[in-house]
Amino acid sequence: MRIAIVGGGLGGLTLARVLHRHGLEAMVYEREASRSARSQGGTLDLHPESGQHALAEAGLTARFRSQARPEGEEHRILDPAGRMLVHHRPEPGTFTGRPEIDRSALRDLLLDALPGGAVAWGHQVVAATPRASGGWELTFEGGRRAGCDLLVGADGARSVVRSLLTGTAPSPVATLVELIVSDVDRRHPELARLVGPGNLWCVGVNQILAAQRAGDGSLRVGISLPAEDHRELSELFEGWDPGVTALVTAADGPATVRRIEALPIGARWDHRPGITLVGDAAHLMPPVGEGANQAMLDGAELANHLAAGIADPDAAVRAYEEGMFARIGPVAEMSARVQAMMLSPTAAEDIVRFFTPATT
């Protein structure tokens, strides 16, 4: 069986790695020219029941722990005046929680665990055509072609493969403004102390200023706003503590503005033989900590279903899809609720309540 995975992100690479462990070959087609063609973004907290479980299925737990930062789980939540509202400190030196790892380091870990030639770089899919004998014919930019028996769309938010299964499209839920403060310990030690080893959120009315420590010594700063908010940076932080807004003024270069989108809660598709989806292509959610974790779990679960049901791959894919739809429903609902809470007028009170354990 020839398996084609379109997209070399975390979900697609986890799928390829777990398939490889089961003795099943797959080709990953990635549109980027190389693994270093672009920045892979900030850090991720890997959850025990999803991302870490997927890495265990991939046989990569030890390598993950050698690069992860348990201290990165520390989380500070402030108000615009700089007052501490919540300060979560993880158990020192343990991996019992949700340790952080740079997205680029995690992707490299998965890439390094694949056999040579398993990823075809510079292959952007422009069309997929069903073959009369079953499977698919893929056409790449530039005219190259390849065939497969099973096509897996792991090609993210704007998935080409998704359109072969459903007309459902993402809609905007927020705007994210991203900035970088490099070499923060040397150049801006006061900001290094403010953020600490992990993450910081400063929660205002309908907006959040966040920062996270990266493994390269930089801070990745993000400003989350409602999708319809188009104010300039200079208009966002009137009355805020200058010690907090220095996260913006200390940034190295111009801001990058991204539209954050999500698929409708409960989105699914009718099963079609020879094709399926994983990760954001299947269930794009607001970025509140679940997307990468669920994508990796998708990849591991699909690989395990295929390995166990190699005699009937279509039944294996169907079983994966039904299990994934059931799992993702509550996760997508929770993610949408957290996203709405974070950008509400009462976000500070709501978030403190969310992060404060109930007492009896």
Polypeptide structure, described:
- It is globular, with a radius of gyration of 21 Å.
- It has a domain at about 5-70 and about 100-170 and about 265-340: FAD/NAD(P)-binding domain (3-Layer(bba) Sandwich).
- It starts with a strand and ends in a 5-residue tail after the last helix.
- The chain has eleven helices and 17 strands.
- Helix content is about 30%, strand content about 25%.
- Strands 5-4-13-14-15-12-16 form a seven-stranded mixed beta sheet, with helices on both faces. The protein has a five-stranded parallel beta sheet with strand order 7-2-1-11-17, with helices on one face. Strands 8-9-10 form a three-stranded antiparallel beta sheet, with no helix packed on it.
- The protein is of the alpha/beta class.
- The longest helix has 30 residues, at about 315-340.
- Strand 4 and strand 5 form a beta hairpin.
- Monomer.
Kindly summarize this structure in a few lines.
The protein is globular, with a radius of gyration of 21 Å. Helix 2 runs parallel beside helix 9. The protein is built from 11 helices and 17 strands.
